[in-house]
Amino acid sequence: MALLKYEEIAESLRARIAAGEFAPGEILPSGRDLAEQWSVSRATTVKALDVLRNDGVVTAKQGTGFVVTETPVARPAGARRAGSPRIAGGMPFLRVGEPDWAEPPTRVATVLGMAPGTTTLRRIRVLQLPDGSPHSYAEAWFPPDIAEASPRLAQTAPIPEGTTRYVRRQTGRFPAEGVDVTTVRLATDSEARHLGLPEATAVAVVLHTAYDQEGRPLVCEEGVTPSPHYEQVDTYAM
């Protein structure tokens, strides 16, 4: 399906940012300049820039314009409803180590349909609270067919457009269904160390799996959140 004009402009800017033409902290062309370049109304370019802002790619600064985000944001695993902006519930994060190929835990391998001994690409991050303290620890596992077609997933640098859009651009596959399974257990030694927790701390574990339009898994992410930081609220008709 053809992109609408504002989507086309947003995707063009997104690609230019991803290519390094606009580095973190740099100002994007103004709405007026973009309107002249694309022969569209300013309202159309503002809508395009708003798409990037909702995705956390840029921020709006009074008197300056739209600036490429310097601190990437991510959402904790789970509850990624369709149509929700990427920055909704997003928080800064730190990458842990470098992406690597490893054998996933049994339950992740089962979800991804991986045979025992098969390695998948793993990306680890620690999401942070406003004061810089750790909020949650997340390991994202990408099946080989996705990782091999999307080489930037194996790099430590943030992906400004977000992994979802990047994977879609590389593979044509996108999330059509998400499944979240929440359990409770004690933190492992590694999780406790990264989250600054004492031994035997209870944590909520959300196993989030995104499936594409053909029901194939795109990514399986295990998010670990200490009990003081975990709260789930559901509102529904009765």
Fold and architecture overview:
The protein has 238 residues and is of the alpha+beta class. The protein has helices at residues 5-18, 31-38, 42-54, 106-112, 144-149, 163-171, 189-195; strands spanning 58-61, 65-68, 73-74, 91-95, 100-102, 120-128, 134-142, 175-186, 202-212, 217-226. It has 7 helices and 10 strands. The relative contact order is 0.13. The chain starts with a helix and ends in a 12-residue tail after the last strand. Strands 3, 4, 5, 6, 7, 8, 9 and 10 form an 8-stranded antiparallel beta sheet that branches. Strands 1-2 form a two-stranded antiparallel sheet.
Mean pLDDT: 88
Roughly what fraction of the amino acids lie in strands? 25-35%
Query: In percent, how helical is the residue content?
Result: 25-40%
Largest sheet: 8 strands, antiparallel
What letter string, H or E per element, gives the SSE order?
HHHEEEEEHEEHHEHEE
Query: What is the rounded distance between the termini?
Result: 39 Å
Number of helices: 7
Which structural class do the helices and strands define?
Answer: alpha+beta
Radius of gyration: 19 Å
Could you list the spans in which at least 5 consecutive residues all have pLDDT below 50? none
Number of strands: 10
The shape, in one word, is globular
Summarize this, please?
With 238 residues, this protein is α+β, with helices and mostly antiparallel strands.
